[in-house]
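Run log // design_07
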């Protein structure tokens, strides 16, 4: 795959292609640098949506609908002939992004495999057979004589899982260890170490093969990345690749909505009603200790800027607290500059963006720091106490803790949001400022409904 800066050549392949690719090798396509990044972001939206659906425990039928919707929304292209290219290019870009650590590889492999599984199920029978041939799976369809000897057992298994015992179905005889999910869920008949897999369950065979191919490819890509690509592409692709694995896919909340200005007199009320736990913790600590270290100051200050606190109010707010600890003069000398700096009024005058969850979750607070994400950085005891303080207890609290144990921190935050506001948050929480604006919206609607 060659990356170019400008003009895109037409797709090299004008012949009809299957809709589902096996991603065996990088395509000989020229890709504009902009598309390189944009396609990857679109695919990332699909994979993140899948990850969210799995973490929420969606059933297979719900996952099938979710995958179909995610694919339709994010992977379309104004030129239908380009959809296949977008699929392949985005996969190979994300392979580069996610080959770099064991943890990234594991996540990517799991999401791509799930995506493949559901896309395969959406293919016609004809295409499914073509894909099996393309995989060169060494399994032969069961011959009639052998089928007759096990027919009754096959019918029994089909009935036990609520499927029609269609005697026209083709069966494949495969070593049972190659279809662990079918064996685990007792969906196949097993005899002498072989599983008898009907055509409608063949997805398991293909997925096992797909997973194994991608897993090996990720290890190889990682070797190439470390030995050559990273250095060769250090001015062009490397910065994009490094940013993509940490990328946040929603609005940046640099500027609050026109209507979303907040005033100092309301700030305590807003903190207790609508701040997510990370910001509420910083806010409470600032009120309590009259001080926050650098990481906490920047995380909270940018959040406050994003929710609509004007610079003058921000300065007054920080000064009121810090003065109690270090005195007004020292605040003006040592701390006011960085508050103004976050608002783009000092230094390079960059308008800094409020931090998204991913950035906060991946921060590494030291002793005495209060920034970071409480779902990731608090002990279980402290997190339970904080949730109790927010009015989230009992079963709801246990569900939150369950997500935390499985390292789904944003989902834990989403469940907290849902418990507090008594309504579902289907988009999930991806940004503290999104938490705030969703919360405010719900509260305003409730007020309007009662007046
Ligand atoms: Fe804050 Fe995001 Fe963590 Fe929620 S998930 S506490 S919004 S960093």
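design_07 sequence
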């Amino acid at each position: 795959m060659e990356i170019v800066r400008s003009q895109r050549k037409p797709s090299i392949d004008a012949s009809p292609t299957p809709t589902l690719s096996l991603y065996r090798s990088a395509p000989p396509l020229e890709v504009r640098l902009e598309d390189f990044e944009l396609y990857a972001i679109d695919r990332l939206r699909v994979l993140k949506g899948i990850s969210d659906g799995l973490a929420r425990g969606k059933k297979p039928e719900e996952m099938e609908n979710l995958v179909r919707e995610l694919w339709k929304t994010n992977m379309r292209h104004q030129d239908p002939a380009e959809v296949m290219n977008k699929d392949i290019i985005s996969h190979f870009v994300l392979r580069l992004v996610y080959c770099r650590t064991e943890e990234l590889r594991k996540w990517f492999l799991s999401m791509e495999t799930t995506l493949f599984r559901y896309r395969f199920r959406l293919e016609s029978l004809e295409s499914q057979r073509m894909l099996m041939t393309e995989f060169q799976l060494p399994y032969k369809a069961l011959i009639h004589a052998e089928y007759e000897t096990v027919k009754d057992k096959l019918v029994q298994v089909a009935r036990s899982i609520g499927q029609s015992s269609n005697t026209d179905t083709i069966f494949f005889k495969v070593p049972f260890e190659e279809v662990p999910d079918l064996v685990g869920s007792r969906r196949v008949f097993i005899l002498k170490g072989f599983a008898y897999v009907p055509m409608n369950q063949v997805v398991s065979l293909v997925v096992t093969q797909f997973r194994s191919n991608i897993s090996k490819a990720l290890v190889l890509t990682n070797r190439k990345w470390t030995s050559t690509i990273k250095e060769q592409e250090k001015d062009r692709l490397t910065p994009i690749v490094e940013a993509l694995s940490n990328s946040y896919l929603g609005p940046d909340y640099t500027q609050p909505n026109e209507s979303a200005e907040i005033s100092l007199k309301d700030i305590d009320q807003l903190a207790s009603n609508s701040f997510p736990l990370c910001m509420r913790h910083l806010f409470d600590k600032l009120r309590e200790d009259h001080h926050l270290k650098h990481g906490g100051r920047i995380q909270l200050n940018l959040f406050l800027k994003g929710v609509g606190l004007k610079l003058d109010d921000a300065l007054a707010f920080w000064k009121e607290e810090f003065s109690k600890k270090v005195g007004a003069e020292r605040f003006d000398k040592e701390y006011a500059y960085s508050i103004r700096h976050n608002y783009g009024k000092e230094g390079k005058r960059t308008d800094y963006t409020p931090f998204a969850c991913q950035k906060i979750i991946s921060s590494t607070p030291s002793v005495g720091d209060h920034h970071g994400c409480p779902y990731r950085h608090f002990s279980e005891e402290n997190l339970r106490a904080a949730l109790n303080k927010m009015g989230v207890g009992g079963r709801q609290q246990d569900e939150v803790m369950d997500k935390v144990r499985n390292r789904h921190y944003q989902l834990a935050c989403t469940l907290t949001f849902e418990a507090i506001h008594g309504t579902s948050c289907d988009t999930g929480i991806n940004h503290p400022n999104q938490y705030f604006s969703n919360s405010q919206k719900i509260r305003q609607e409730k007020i309007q409904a009662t007046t």
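The first strand starts at residue 2 and ends at 4.
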